[in-house]
From TrEMBL:
GO MF term list: 4 iron, 4 sulfur cluster binding; metal ion binding; quinolinate synthetase A activity
HAMAP family: NadA_type2 (MF_00568)
NCBIfam families for this protein: nadA, PRK09375.1-2, PRK09375.1-4
UniProt protein name: Quinolinate synthase
InterPro entries from the UniProt entry: NadA, NadA_sf, Quinolinate_synth_type2
Cofactor binding summary note: Binds 1 [4Fe-4S] cluster per subunit.
Organism: Hydrogenivirga caldilitoris
GO CC list: cytosol
Amino acid sequence: MNVGFEIQERELTAEEIKELQKEVRRLAQEKNAIILAHYYQRPEVQDIADFVGDSLELSRKAANTDADIIVFCGVRFMCETAKILSPQKKVLHPNPESGCPMADMVTAEQVRKLREEHPDAEFVAYINTTADVKAEVDICVTSANAPKIIKKLEAKKIVFLPDQALGQWVAKQVPEKEFIIWKGFCPPHFEFTAREVMKLKEKYPDAKVAVHPECHPKVIELADFVGSTSQIIKYATSVDAKRVIVITEVGLKYTLMKKNPNKEYIFPESMNYCGTVYCCTMKGITLPKVYETIKNEINEVELPEDIIERARRPIERMLELS
């Protein structure tokens, strides 16, 4: 395969994938680039990454890298976070159209209006928000650290945005505080139903159930474990059970199988690359797009300096408290 020609968006053969992966790694070394990928990325993309992680882990890597270029295989808000934490770096996004519907459910203007309505509250934003929104809040959190961080805040009233499911889950763990919760949601996670999970529990009565906190509260109630992507990995691969029902994005199955192939990881049947319950924006990043991006150094993420400065403070505060 001649990787010098323009790669078409088509299904590649196993040999083409292997050769293209080698070329991407060669370019990364040549250009002093680091490739970061979220767990929900396609397997062939995860395999060429220097580091695969969840939002918090990737934020830390972006903040501490010595690379000149960051190629971020994730959705837009993740790439913005990398740019905010490493403004001197060139941050490249293999698919600029890969946004996050949840992040787009709240705007900076709406946050400013909430500030007027709740001047005594501390504003907490899930990391799944745009740079403009981050610039308006007091601190950011992830699904891995939200309860821990919010317990440490002095304010008694918390405005939590944009994910209502995560907000309600955190509020139950921090009952001493008053929560004002924005009504945003993650479309893929919110599509899981309690009925669907109950059917799986009936079919596999010996299985444990691990659920991401972006899921509907009725789904969370059925879980043996609730946690972030990285926390689910740790639980599912080490729990004393041969089967684990996993209620999150199907991309995680690849990592679970690599970490502990001796267990059976059960995802809802509708959750596959041809079904409806998966993150289509995450899957919008393909190996050919990563290759073209790093080869030509295109799709650079750019943010206004004032947004970078204001948005950095709540992210750094999160990293300090977590």
